[in-house]
TrEMBL record:
<dbReference type="Pfam" id="PF04977">
    <property type="entry name" value="DivIC"/>
</dbReference>
<feature type="compositionally biased region" description="Basic and acidic residues">
    <location>
        <begin position="97"/>
        <end position="113"/>
    </location>
</feature>
<feature type="coiled-coil region">
    <location>
        <begin position="37"/>
        <end position="71"/>
    </location>
</feature>
<protein>
    <submittedName>
        <fullName>Cell division protein DivIC (FtsB), stabilizes FtsL against RasP cleavage</fullName>
    </submittedName>
</protein>
<keyword id="KW-1133">Transmembrane helix</keyword>
<feature type="region of interest" description="Disordered">
    <location>
        <begin position="94"/>
        <end position="113"/>
    </location>
</feature>
<feature type="transmembrane region" description="Helical">
    <location>
        <begin position="9"/>
        <end position="31"/>
    </location>
</feature>
<dbReference type="InterPro" id="IPR039076">
    <property type="entry name" value="DivIC"/>
</dbReference>
<keyword id="KW-0175">Coiled coil</keyword>
<keyword id="KW-0812">Transmembrane</keyword>
<keyword id="KW-0472">Membrane</keyword>
<dbReference type="GO" id="GO:0051301">
    <property type="term" value="P:cell division"/>
</dbReference>
<keyword id="KW-0131">Cell cycle</keyword>
<dbReference type="InterPro" id="IPR007060">
    <property type="entry name" value="FtsL/DivIC"/>
</dbReference>
<keyword id="KW-0132">Cell division</keyword>
Length: 113
């Protein structure tokens, strides 16, 4: 008689409902955890990318610090950033030709008409 009672117990609707509820809760929790893991992995990869960028920037700054005493580096910065020239040198500033500006204005006027 024992095996029959166990079988009847497992077929009881209350037991089946409890098992289904537990299964649904488990699936829901698994889905939530999977979503959280994916979000965290995305954040980790974004942070790793940011770290790599900052390391490259840091290396560049360290290189600039090391070169700050180098006369060639100082001269390069003075030329590029400050527009300075050595005595006797001429500074050339590129200027667009007037013909090019006139042609651009004509093209604009032609497009309007």
């Amino acid at each position: 008689m024992m095996p029959r009672q166990k079988k009847d117990f497992l077929l009881n609707p209350v037991v089946i409902i409890i098992i289904v509820i537990i299964a649904v809760i488990s699936v829901f929790n698994f889905y939530q955890n999977t979503t959280k893991i994916n979000q965290i992995e995305t954040q980790i990869s974004e942070i790793e990318t940011q770290i790599a960028k900052e390391k490259a920037k840091n290396e560049k700054l360290e290189k600039q610090i090391k070169n700050s005493d180098d006369n060639e580096y100082i001269e390069e910065i003075a030329r590029e950033k400050l527009g300075l020239v050595k005595p006797g040198e001429k500074l050339l500033i590129p200027v667009e030709s007037e013909n090019k500006n006139e042609n651009q204005e004509k093209d604009k006027n032609d497009k309007k008409n």
